[in-house]
């Protein structure tokens, strides 16, 4: 009966991939810059091994947070669903890494100091990754803009017949429908709960089975929606990327370059710091 | 040149596909019709009559198998004109969620013109103009998924207008809106027709919407069944045959005329004032007083006596986000054997309230009690009672057919019973009885629910709740999306369930239906109970109803105006309380006039 505690709506806390409306430097930055920065930080976050550099990364993320004007609570909502996973990864690492000095031993469980550092690093990294991704990209950029950016960045691939526009369009529609499908899932679950379903108790197998009864109507309705959307897009003369114009075309401004440079320098600094401290 | 011309068109879905061995029935067959440029046309017909297909043919989303569709001189069969036609006709569809492509309002409005390759700055100008035209300019940077239903449909119109179309097709675009948003939406569309010379085509199940049009075309089984002005259609055409009904006002007028032995002509139907005048003349004519016969008995089937209190909602507060209350301070008693209506504007908290009745939501504070006056009271705050409450109070959500999931109807109906861990025999017995109660044939039980028609699916979904033998059945908009005859059948079903002992709670947008079928109506405004009264009492106080933000039933508005006029010449007439079924109200008015005439004669 966990859905009760969440105040009625069973799934409304998922803010992953949800745009946060605000007027900030990061919001205004060209999505291409943000996408590239996201890739840079993706690499940096996985490169960093020293705790100090990781701490510095945390500071950079705070800077990103301030630049984005996103409410800290929203960021918390974004990472909270990932916490169990982070914890799981941490425990897994704690138990499997045998290098270093043993600090704790009980039967087959061995925890080493090195293992502890590595495990915490892993968990913190994962959380930082989610935070950085959502601040740089999903929270501050509308899905349509992300799709625009990807389309623009990948447009050289059009030469070798990669359907770049189509892929970008699919992505933006998928993102656009996340809230709609969450709402729908919520409705289906409520209807089944009102008929006696209980998703949170029982054996694991039973619980999985319970979710299947949610997934079937969800799939059926997604197909119906997809069909209707296709008709609606047809009616609005959608015919692929050729000859399409843009209401808000991407234009690189001076500030975009500055933001890009600044964040890039931060990232580079982190790497240098990490390499020297390692 | 200046018309849309459909010439002998036949179209079958899937006819191009490989599945030619089992051809479908044609969705549209030998259909011919013409729609003048700049006109306002309603397309009526029962579910599955080919209305939406016609819209798709005019917008060249589908191309006819045979015959021609010519839009303002351009033949849709001509590949080189294809895009030109599609560019000039725009559609707004029923489900707002499934036609919004952009995340942000202005991005979505721009989608069409972007596809057309309109360049900046014209693109920006078009988008802004379209948003201003429909009154959503202030929302331009909002997230589209967060808009209300009415706003989303306006957004859809803006998206259509930004393409600068010549034809605007509304494909059941108002079906999911409450009366107020519906009216606003139509006014926007009608306004655009006048200002921009748009040709407006509306596909609808709402007969009073058809009254606003210049021409009505009725489709039946893919063929044109009738065509004419609304007055002609509603005067002469046997609508029942096509799954349609006359608008309530016209039903009322015809019944009155029939009782008086008079006729109503096509001209009388050209306007409400005109119709009212005609009825006034009929009722004040001398011969009526002489040989009219007073009808016996009041034919209201409504329950007058209250049963025991079966549910009590006490000081209920509920919140989704922990900050603002979706509903607050709700106090409501439900009596056994009644039909209780819950009405209010979209977003006022109706659905939240009924979710608490079935304990699928936990209140912030307050209590919902079942059997409050007996020793066996179930309370939603008691964890052990929750499952019992869910069985006692059945809940049918809006569009329940979208929630079917099993391979057979039978299995789907049994879902709740399996959760109750009943024996196989008991399950079978209950499922068959429930199916029978909703009017499903036994052989349908073996079928896949996804093969059924819309109305059957909904019945199957209701049967799934009924099988759990709830004492109280709560239905959220049970008739939405159904054609007029389907609606009537749904309410007949609800009445029969009540007669077999189930207490019914209905959430509804339609005031005429709520007034006609409910014993009491609870009005919700901004999350609070504004008033709970019988429909007779409620709709006697017009100011109060308007203050709550509700509409009066159309029949009441029309009939009271007539009664006022009559009062002026027949002051001794006692019309009593208003009734809400058009025929019953007609009889009541007729009786009152006759009785007054008698008294006068004596």
SSE topology:
The complex is a heterodimer of chains A (278) and B (602).
Chain A: H1 2-5, H2 25-28, H3 31-47, H4 51-68, H5 72-79, H6 83-96, E1 102-106, E2 109-112, H7 113-138, H8 143-154, H9 164-193, H10 204-235, H11 254-277
Antiparallel strand pairs in A: 1-2
Chain B: E1 3-11, E2 28-36, E3 40-44, H1 51-58, E4 66-71, E5 74-75, H2 82-88, E6 89-92, H3 105-116, H4 122-134, H5 149-161, E7 167-171, H6 179-196, E8 199-203, H7 207-211, E9 215-220, E10 223-228, H8 230-236, H9 248-259, H10 272-284, H11 286-291, E11 309-319, E12 325-335, E13 339-343, H12 350-357, E14 365-370, E15 378-379, H13 383-392, E16 393-396, H14 409-419, H15 424-437, H16 454-466, E17 472-476, H17 484-499, E18 503-508, H18 511-517, E19 520-525, E20 528-533, H19 535-538, H20 542-547, H21 554-569, H22 582-601
Parallel strand pairs in B: 3-8, 3-9, 6-7, 7-8, 13-18, 13-19, 16-17, 17-18
Antiparallel strand pairs in B: 1-2, 1-4, 4-5, 9-10, 11-12, 11-14, 14-15, 19-20
Describe this structure as you would to a colleague.
Chain A has 278 residues and is mostly helical. Chain A has one domain. Helix content of chain A is 68%, strand content 3%. Chain A has eleven helices and two strands. Chain A has helices at 2-5, 25-28, 31-47, 51-68, 72-79, 83-96, 113-138, 143-154, 164-193, 204-235, 254-277; strands at residues 102-106, 109-112. In chain A, strands 1-2 form a two-stranded antiparallel ribbon. In chain A, strand 1 (102-106) and strand 2 (109-112) form a beta hairpin. Chain A is flat, with a radius of gyration of 22 Å. Mean pLDDT of chain A is 84; it is low at 1-16. By secondary structure, chain B is an alpha/beta fold. Chain B has three domains: 3-241, Rossmann fold, CATH 3.40.50; 248-300 and 555-601, no CATH class; 309-533, P-loop containing nucleotide triphosphate hydrolases (Rossmann fold, 3-Layer(aba) Sandwich), CATH 3.40.50.300. In chain B, 40% of the residues lie in helices and 20% in strands. In chain B, the strands form four sheets. A six-stranded mixed beta sheet of chain B has the order 6-7-8-3-9-10, with helices on both faces. In chain B, strands 16-17-18-13-19-20 form a six-stranded mixed beta sheet, sandwiched between helices. In chain B, strand 14 and strand 15 form a beta hairpin. In chain B, helix 3 (105-116) packs parallel to helix 5, helix 9 packs parallel to helix 10 (272-284) and helix 14 crosses helix 15. Chains A and B meet through helix 9 and helix 10 of A and helix 2, strand 6, helix 3, helix 4 and helix 13 of B.
